[in-house]
Design a protein that fits this description.
The chain is of the alpha+beta class. It is built from seven helices and ten strands. The radius of gyration is 17 Å and the shape is globular.
């Protein structure tokens, strides 16, 4: 059994295929993109990887006015997202073609945003996705940062001697084969600690913020006002890094 902040969570893949408020897998826009991406692929793994690559590279890493308060269809419309919103979209697209998927919530050191933003908290909330492929749950967050940003960002992190920054981890990867865990930000396979909390699996990002014990980034009136401004600033900085690459 997986563990959520409010108790055990079933690993039955059948429990992780439906729609929620944020994972609006039945929205016409979500359905159309998922069917287009999966067309011509006979295996679930091939469908998963086609959707993974779309979410990674066709949805640019960045922030929108809603912060985490975006449905999958909203993320598709804006073509911009960060960990929590790109995870929402990834899960929705997978479920739209009947592939079980779910979000896992942890925190991550704020240094992952070094060079882009100082969030004002020591850690920030983060989610990655577990996808059910060939009888096993396989974790990844390598879809979060688009390839155009990831490569020059990671080069900067390494040249400056940092563990994280510009949205990436020094040992992260943007590649995933659907068989083994792979991470671009959370990098659970690196022994150096970057996280203090593992809240576990939730139905969606809204469920997480309703139920989780002391998350770092619950929306409040001040954050709702400021997120638009800092989002523009982060997105501009990210675009400059892309251009440098």
């Amino acid at each position: 059994m997986a563990q959520g902040d409010f108790g055990p969570v079933t690993d039955d893949p059948g429990a992780w295929i439906g729609a929620t408020r944020y994972i609006d897998k039945d929205h016409p826009r979500v359905q159309a993109v998922a069917l287009d991406l999966s067309s011509g692929h006979s295996s679930d793994r091939d469908k998963v990887l086609a959707i993974f690559q779309f979410v990674r590279d066709r949805i640019k890493f960045g922030f929108t006015r809603g912060f985490w308060d975006n449905r999958a269809s909203d993320v598709l419309a804006s073509r911009t997202g960060y960990c929590n919103t790109k995870s929402t979209l990834f899960v929705a697209l997978l479920r739209a073609v009947d592939i079980p998927a779910r979000q896992v919530f942890v925190d991550i050191d704020r240094q992952v945003l070094y060079g882009l933003l100082d969030p004002g908290t020591p850690y920030v909330d983060h989610s990655y996705v577990e996808t059910y492929i060939d009888g096993a749950w396989v974790a990844t967050d390598s879809y979060i940062v688009d390839a155009d940003l990831f490569t020059p960002a990671q080069a900067r992190v390494r040249s400056e001697g940092h563990l994280m920054g510009y949205g990436v981890h020094a040992t992260g990867t943007l590649d995933w084969d659907g068989r083994s865990p792979a991470f671009s930000q959370f990098t659970a396979l690196d022994e150096r600690p970057i996280s203090t909390r593992h809240w576990g699996v939730y139905q969606d990002v809204g469920d997480f913020y309703r139920r989780a014990d002391r998350p770092w980034n619950r929306l409040n009136p001040l954050l709702r006002v400021s997120v638009g401004a800092f989002g523009v600033s982060i997105n501009q900085r990210a675009d400059r890094i892309r251009a440098s690459g």
